């Protein structure tokens, strides 16, 4: 399995994603947004940051980056694709996952540890996760997930909700919701379940030196699932 | 000389050369105007006069501060660049790596336009770091605002925090700590000081210099607009009603551009073809061309027509003085222009050759085919011909009044009052949780912040970044200044600021290495204000010498005063860099488990002077600085270092604002436990619990380590005492439960958020 982390102008979590995967002994390369070559990568990651400054809507410009043609084709072929934070926003703008990400209800950027309850029973990212709550950082100003009623029903009916914000005991409450996301949704996948988007940053909680490895548990589950 | 052969044309076309009155309007003294005429051997035209006015402004020339700054200790074995020599200080941290760090103010812009003022402050300080070839890895900030209940203060606070957040978050360097205080003295003049630290390999450091006749000079990054013209002059005046008329003097920031500029800059420096590079901050092109040229005695011929501009027909002085953000001046090896161009093309950034290096020692600027300014680089810059003044100073009358404070005129707290005082302090804007602020900053990007899940007195950041060699080291950084202490006694107060910064680093398991300072004062032409400055520099110098933490550079911000409110408290903010060689030496401030013993290292005195308790609860504003003895401080820090190194303590937390009670409460809240302690019958209860005499640290020790801990402290000769023990959740004083940890958190956690909602 070869991982590729796309670097858009303004990406700033690309190195963190590379570091986390490298720590887990994975082969990983950076992919430049102006290129048209996925360099044989099997798993593409769109990292966090502020692609193109996010001066329009978050992710709205990045989806038109040259490399996105290949990324979208890769996803449509069933290739693995994951967007974290700004990457999730780009996936939503590119319609590769359902729903949109709106300004946080607080109208403020928020960076802190939150807890995630794994939801989907059959998505590769979550199916084997056993803890009731994973402590993972969020860092975003536009993380409020929203979808219309039909889309929400489809997500729930087809196990496409990956994570919901919860308290440290796994209770999904309003207080535990850092941004006003619909039904506390923190991450979703597409219907084919090869494209994953999430606002929280598992790659920021992957190194024991930082005192929290819950993110590493999530990434290990992913590796276990995709390396089969 | 060449200049007399063909005088530069005047512009704008006023028809005649500007008079001394124009010079005065540009912020120059009549004496300075005469001096300019002497230097040029003729009268300056408007462009040249503008050049001198910004280069000789306080902001660029340090003319009113440099004679005192030179008295600060500036050397140690670890120093790789002397103060003021490069864009930022450079300290050897071993393993072939160096840390570049600096603090800088953006007070005046933030007073008028808090969002952009603060944002561009963050941008500017980071450029100072990465122009040296260092990749920034962490940021701090030190903020001062007026009374938090004023709508204006809330507007400023909201704007500044959002400005710092939006810029730093997008730029992608974590903001890992800082400090914030509120006092009426900052009602008109808030202080916004931004700190950044970066890492570079020794031997790969870029210099702010220029040499080699014929080498091309490039301007890179953003286009040049009309923003921030005379910004440096503006920062060298008192704030007044008319200041809002200078709104164009405030620049506008673009963190996306800065991120691209960071990556492109590090790439061109790595290419090895850069002779010199300097960011454009205050005074824009004229500052970087003159400072880089003066460094080795070279000159430059620059064609201003080639500068990419945001609007047509910009006047020469506008292009030269513009403080448009996210720009750099780069001198490149001749013949390597293409390499540089390709890198900037990759990042979609402007990169334009605007001139060449000459051996004249003079700066020739051309516009529309004509010479518009001809000035000697050396005479413009600090250390060259820029003026240096010895200003008059005089001790203000209030100082001796403050010194007369008698503790016996203040009633001690009664048992019934304790809870009220405790709640007052826990929820006080100067003490309560800063969560409302720091949650708006990305503190974790870069996966290097070791403080996210382990709170401590200073921030711990791993030395880690793209392209850097692996190391186990961390930098330990903090910003500190209790300006109330400095106001009460500038010499002692400045010593305390240094001592507290060092104490914070020591309590975190680090070794203090070096200092950057941000000297925020009022108008230097007021003798009482200048006395603040002189005394604070003396105190800072003494303390930095004693702690062996030389001053690597920093920033002076005068004129933080207004016609209504007078000067702000003298606020010499200390940014201190420490090093943690071994990650296992990391210490946190949170109490561990119930039953652990709680000790105080250091001695408590019958002293409530300048405490938050005295100032805001008792309402007594006039008292001296709290008790402080530098030798006692050094001994306490040595003892704390030893017990951390020997793994004898579970937690360590220094005493500062709010005294012992707040230190205990913070350690307890961070561990979600309580404490039970006994007061000292020989001391006033308020002094014991809330006094802020210095050189004290609260530690907790597990039962099994108590004997070894006591033996180590006894051997050190430093005073220590057992206060009590950690409990499961109650805060107990002399057997009476004051509150629970949950009560304390309720008062502490959201106090600032509640004020701001």
From TrEMBL, chain A:
One of its GO terms (biological process) is 'de novo' IMP biosynthetic process. The keyword Magnesium does not apply. Gene3D superfamilies: 3.40.50.880. Its EC number is 6.3.5.3, 3.5.1.2. InterPro entries: Class_I_gatase-like, PRibForGlyAmidine_synth_PurQ. Pathway: Purine metabolism; IMP biosynthesis via de novo pathway; 5-amino-1-(5-phospho-D-ribosyl)imidazole from N(2)-formyl-N(1)-(5-phospho-D-ribosyl)glycinamide: step 1/2. GO terms for cellular component: cytoplasm. It catalyses: N(2)-formyl-N(1)-(5-phospho-beta-D-ribosyl)glycinamide + L-glutamine + ATP + H2O = 2-formamido-N(1)-(5-O-phospho-beta-D-ribosyl)acetamidine + L-glutamate + ADP + phosphate + H(+); L-glutamine + H2O = L-glutamate + NH4(+). It holds the Pfam family GATase_5. The keyword Lipid biosynthesis does not apply. Signal peptide: none annotated. PROSITE patterns: GATASE_TYPE_1. It is found in: Cytoplasm. Part of the phosphoribosylformylglycinamidine synthase complex involved in the purines biosynthetic pathway. Catalyzes the ATP-dependent conversion of formylglycinamide ribonucleotide (FGAR) and glutamine to yield formylglycinamidine ribonucleotide (FGAM) and glutamate. The FGAM synthase complex is composed of three subunits. PurQ produces an ammonia molecule by converting glutamine to glutamate. PurL transfers the ammonia molecule to FGAR to form FGAM in an ATP-dependent manner. HAMAP family: PurQ. Part of the FGAM synthase complex composed of 1 PurL, 1 PurQ and 2 PurS subunits. This is Phosphoribosylformylglycinamidine synthase subunit PurQ. It comes from Arsenicibacter rosenii. The lineage of its organism: Bacteria, Pseudomonadati, Bacteroidota, Cytophagia, Cytophagales.
